Amino acid sequence: MQFKMNKMVVGAALLVAAVAAQAQVAVVVNPKSAVSSMTADQVASIFLGKSNALPNGNAAVAVDLPESAGARDTFYTKATGKSSAQVKAAWSRLVFSGKGTPPKEMGSSADVKKFVAGNPDAIGYIEKSAVDSSVKVVLSVD
After folding, report:
1. Residue whose C-alpha is closest to residue 43's, from 108, 99, 109, 87
2. Residue-wise burial string across 65-85, b where 16 or more C-beta atoms lie within 10 A, e elsewhere
3. Of 26, 79, 32, 91, nearest in space to 56 by CA
4. Which pTM value belongs to this model?
5. pLDDT digits over 11-57, tens only?
6. Which positions make up the signal peptide (predicted)?
7. What is the Cβ-side half-sphere exposure of residue 7, based on CA atoms within 13 angstroms?
8. How many domains does the chain have?
9. Domain membership flag for residue 15
């Protein structure tokens, strides 16, 4: 009976991990931003250090979730086509060569939301379930 119960606990944990890995993510900007939508290529360009501007020409202030966040893996895999490890390696090269600074890492979706809400040129991503009127969604990453 104990073995069967352990298998059920492990199965439930794997299910939770699989759901977390498939988190729905929203790319958000300040609600006062003139930017109303962005393509995945535009977002990827900012978060991979290829561009530092929003589509309206303003300098983008990008913020990231911590590496431990499931939404981070979903975001980078689906929006940029790269794994978190590939993104980290790309930023290491840019930083080493003096060509860029990676997005500032925030502690949580709530921190990203607060930062974006308080900065007109900020861009970040959060779980779709965390979206409220303090931010504007410019891209959904499912």
Report:
1. 87
2. beeebbbbbbbbbbbbebeee
3. 32
4. 0.82
5. 444 434 444 445 799 999 999 999 999 999 999 999 999 999 999 99
6. 1-23
7. 4
8. 1
9. no
